Amino acid sequence: MDLSIGVWTIILFGLMFAVLATGLPVVFVLGGIAMALSILIFGINATIGLYMNVWAGFITQMLLAVPLFILMASVLQYSGIADDAYDMFYKWMGGLRGGLAMGTVLICTIFAAVTGTSGAATVSMGLIAIPSMLKRGYDKRMIVGGVAAGGVLGLLIPPSIIMIIYSLIAHLSIGKMFMGGIFPGLVASFLYVLYIGIRCWRNPELGPPLPVEERATWSMKLVSLKALMLPIILIIAVLGSIWFGVATPTEAAAVGAFGGFICAIIHRRFNLTLLRTASLQALRLTSMIFWIMAGAIAFSNLYIQLGARDMIGELVTGLHLNPWLILILMQISLLILGCLMDDVAVIMLAGPIYIPIIETLGFNPLWFGILFIMNMNIAYLTPPYGFNLFYLRGLTPVIREQTGVEITMGDIYHAVVPFVGLQIIALAIVMVFPSLATWLPGKMFG
Prior knowledge:
Strand content: under 5%
Helix content: over 70%
Number of helices: 22
Structural class: mainly alpha
Largest sheet: none
Low-confidence stretches: none
Distance between the termini: 50 Å
Order of helices and strands: HHHHHHHHHHHHHHHHHHHHHH
């Protein structure tokens, strides 16, 4: 079929959006379209070659870090670390207006630096913090939004699984990507805390402080600080081993997974049930990520073979637009794709096309990578494909049973709106100040 790449673009993405609208899982949409059109255009032999290339993309040691970090996150989810951390912030910040909500965001930030995923922090804090705050009169939409937004920091603050996948696509140092996400992640966390603090200061009924008789003494506060010891040790073990060159990211992931089991043993939570539950959860999440990667690689390979890279390159150079305008248009397109597709699929699909253009325009690919990941943060909060929205919706029956408060999907959608705005502000700050993403990797790795 001798059609122009422009026509093929309309056909490919038209089919993709049409089939996605049926509710079919994204892996079958991308992989199925790629296989069917590849057979139709190039024949069965070329299609076999296409999928051999997909398989070749998985033969890399770096991908071993993905299941190991997921296993670490799954074990920590059941280890008791989140419970102890929440209790510590409960003691230190409960006396402030909105203090428990601000503390929950800070716990999510710590959990992000320990687990590398969004689900662990979101589910843990959803089960621990939301019922506790609802019983103390906190506004349900504000705390649901804070937990959802705090949870996505696991994508940006290292060790981040999605950063590993992006680094493999962009041929970037995983260690540099990890370090590049620290300050942008802290900027987003600070904006969340600042927003909650200002809202509760102006409207105390949104997050009332604990009564004086329920507040902890200074001795209780100091004792509670021991809850930070294990997370800090684990963070140093994982990131420090990469920073000092003691371990590769894959080896550091193994250290993290082993450390997760040690944490569970110290908290006396380790048993066969935890081992089975955490392992099965890690297996399901890893399988989901790898299958999505396979479908997305096949789709993007087909699109590139049809001439997409040359077409987009010519389009960009032919328009004679300001490079910054092109960069902004890319961010908008990533926001739209993030509403419709899984984050892994977006990276596998858009990464091979956008990264060469960014390099041609003279932008720092590491900085663009952090912007890309920040867009995926927003994707986790935006319907209809926002993972964190699904996580919280799945917890609502348990929350209702514990508190008697009904949290609807409409409440969840409404709750995340201001936090999506804060994420966009954080994205804009990192765009305006690229050194937030590049200074630390430069200092640490040269």
